[in-house]
């Protein structure tokens, strides 16, 4: 008699492989090519960061969520993929929210992922740890907001966030992940099938042929045409079609600050050095990925000449942008790449370039203004003024056209926009549409991480104060970032006095003769103190060549600088000499 022994099934046959919410989020991001996370660890996402590193993602950990968010938004602008910012709940979420709102305002694709408290406790307001209805708070400040409650919905939730961030006019998206989501378990195979690879997340939006024909007809009739490129044109990465259109049409052009380098600022058709002349005297203005917002005086006022003296063409992916401030006689709705390709194709072989009178007027004004500025940029004085210092940095960028430039401040920003020429697209990051301060270190870190190129961050001492602790992050990751602080001892300038006669310093004055360079030394980087433009040029050149984290404290004349930089008109001044209920 044969005895048959029943074999016990192996454990693997009884228990299927499992995955959890942590790994599903990581797998969903990786499936869509999102492999870098900017954030700050803490409850409930600490382990998520560790696991993401284990799975081969790059996780850049910051000292403050706001700067991680600025890094994510800059990454979105540079790559056309949503930058990912990861924060803890409530206070950390709120810190990241400023950057999310800034990304939406600037049309940068970004996803803010925040852990959150449990819904059943939050909804009854029972006092959970860091309790906050984060989804409700985020909704008004971003393009879209989603919450994922179940592990099987992670794939579709992340897919929706990606598509919302990059489609149409890009922007910020909030993704709420409650703590209970992360440890949820499901079968590995079911989890794999639940993931979604987003197909064509930002499909081309082809302009109507009639819109192209109308726009070209308006241009043909122009006597004094002008093209203005905004950062939307730079984001589009339609560089070849833009260059070909400009050169074939012969149109003079202006580039807004983050569009600088689409064509070199030294291009013969660039009207940057004659900005006031062309804005005032052009009869047809074509806006490409640029908005008629405060940065262009809303298309109104003295800088634009007589009311009704010009016609506007506008190319934008957002239909609601048309007629937002001024009548647009030729709206062209579509993505910038498709629109510029169609505009280029419509020029034809018989296109008539602008009249010589107009181009000669522009060139004469350019030569005049460049001549006036030349001497100031070469001034090697102690203490330095803004022009002499920026003249030195202008040389650095000219010698390294592929380097990234980050710029913020008041006078430091306003003057650098016009002085430092850019030669390649998407090499300049600054405060953008909102004019928000503190973007410098986050943007510099993202520029280094995403491009691998050396980064020059030119900071006003006030702007640096918002984000200065991130120099430790720069050193920790050994990034090729050279930070230059224009130190004039205060906001706008360091010579203001307290009108009350109190021992307190004026509200705009900082510690005199501060040595910011020693902050970088504290974290193992290189610190340099300079007092002349020649010293500044040498220190920055060496830093950019070495690729080592460096901070240069550039000592600027405390009296240099003007109130609010070039936008003093936005800073109301009191005309009343008395206070209510008291004497003068």
From TrEMBL:
Record flagged with keyword Iron: no
Domain Thiamine pyrophosphate enzyme central residues, every copy: 212-342
Native source organism of the sequence: Paracoccus methylarcula
Protein name: Oxalyl-CoA decarboxylase
Cofactor(s) required for function per UniProt: thiamine diphosphate
InterPro entries tied to this protein: DHS-like_NAD/FAD-binding_dom, HACL1-like, Oxalyl-CoA_decarboxylase, THDP-binding, Thiamin_PyroP_enz_cen_dom, Thiamin_PyroP_enz_TPP-bd_dom, TPP_enzyme_TPP-bd
Ranges for domain Thiamine pyrophosphate enzyme N-terminal TPP-binding: 21-137
Keyword tags: Lyase, Magnesium, Metal-binding, Thiamine pyrophosphate
Region described as Disordered: spans on this chain: 562-584
GO biological process, one term: oxalate catabolic process
Family from the record: Belongs to the TPP enzyme family.
Sequence ranges assigned to domain Thiamine pyrophosphate enzyme TPP-binding in this UniProt record: 411-553
UniProt GO molecular function: magnesium ion binding; oxalyl-CoA decarboxylase activity; thiamine pyrophosphate binding
